[in-house]
Amino acid sequence: MPTEPRVTASAAPSALPALAAALLAGAVFAAPATAAPQDEVSVQKKTINGVVADVYSWYDSRGLLRTVALKRQGEGNPGNGGYAVQMTYRPNKNTTVRANDPGGTDGGFGYFVGHEGYRTFTNDDYGTIAGKVFGTTDSPLGRRFPVTGEGKVAKNKKSAAHRFELTYPRYGTRTPIPKDPKSGEFDQNTPIEKAANQKYETPVTITWTFEAGRDFPRIDTAVDLSEVGQPDRVNFDLRGPYGVLDFDNGKNLAVDKVMWGDRYHFETTEAPVVRNTPWTWNVPNAGNRYTALIAGKYEMGLYEPRKFTKSMTVDGYANGRGTTSENYRCEDADWALPCDWEWPYQSLQYSLPYDNDEQPTTGKKIAWGSTNFYGTGDSLQEVFDGTTGDAFVGWPDGEVLRYSVCVVLGITRDDGLTKSAAAPDSALTCAKQQVFD
Question: In order of start, what are the domains of the chain with their CATH numbers?
């Protein structure tokens, strides 16, 4: 009897008979009769809140159980699979905290999103190719697209990985348009005619990794640009992993604090968070990139498992970076928080109301983020973030963009759980990258 349950998804489900397609929709595992030992990762097919999922279980660095339920494609599930519908952890041996998919069009967590960069067209319109030329969204949620799934437990059972593959649309020009190396602006206006533009298909691979004795799962994302063919045709940012989980154990609490780290640490300084909440964004960050939301005693966050100076993603421009709310307000809307477009990660900014600067929100969307120049070639080798220029590679060797984040869930602490995990020499641990093949 093999000890390594595995299924291979090498073709699209639509190209296979119905039974094979159903098997490819999610990894097929032999369900263990009991929970895994503390030094192993186990996986079981279960129904979680009415959704058929592969549920991974492991014990973290404190010997406390954690789980992640990854939705399967098909099998009677509504919509598509490819993301987490529930994550759980235990702050102590007697308590389980559940972070559930709240439903709605953006519920669940871990799917891919990328926003197309804005540009000026030959008719002087300003916008995206998707919107202005093709009349569609420039940033569809990755959960809208079917996935193939494949899971693997390591032979020693100490780690497991689950990979989802999908095809994500990306709109661009047929003829490359380079950038001005200083301003980042296009060298020429983009033709408005549909014949001069094209929808490209970009394969995206999302791999979750779980490891016994470690606290947080890891998500590795790869965006394949080979179908685009040439640099300077498309421009977009990287916002996956993306989504919403009710990480406050179903209490529907308002968000009390926003924190993130890029070149500097950002932190709101009054609770709950509203448009006019004061903040600081001027303390240098010696650790990793991170972003976090805190509601009551509960926290959810993301961090990159490498130092900021070696990050795989580059920030966009922000006027507020390197300063505080004492000497900065969003000029676009005259509120205290940085303007929505300045936030380096998609977070609370689009959940807060626009008609009341003093009203909090219970919205808990969280995602990654980057500059929107990915897809650009050698014409743009540096991106200015508002304080400093960063070396930039928008079209990597091999034509595949790759980056990793770790998903933090837990009871917050004074200095922030995610910030602590992203600090140098942190004792909080993330799963190591696993070679899937």
Answer: 110-421 (2.70.98)
Q: Is the peptide bond before 241 cis (omega within 30 degrees of 0)?
A: yes
- The answer on pLDDT for 20 being more than 70 is no
pLDDT of residue 362: 98
168-192 CB burial, b ≥16 within 10 A, e <16: bbbbbbeebbebeeeebebeeebbe
* Closest listed residue to residue 336, CA positions, set 325, 321, 345, 347: 325
pLDDT, tens digit, for every residue of 231-255?
Answer: 999 999 999 999 999 999 999 999 9
Do 361 and 275 touch, CB atoms closer than 8 A?
Answer: no
Pairwise CA distance, residues 252 & 276, whole Å? 22
The pTM assigned to this predicted structure is 0.91
Helices (H) and strands (E) in the chain, counts: 3, 22
Strand-strand pairing, 197-211 and 159-173: antiparallel
Which of the two residues, 425 and 221, has the higher pLDDT score? 221
Provide the CB-side half-sphere exposure for 59 (13 A, CA): 12
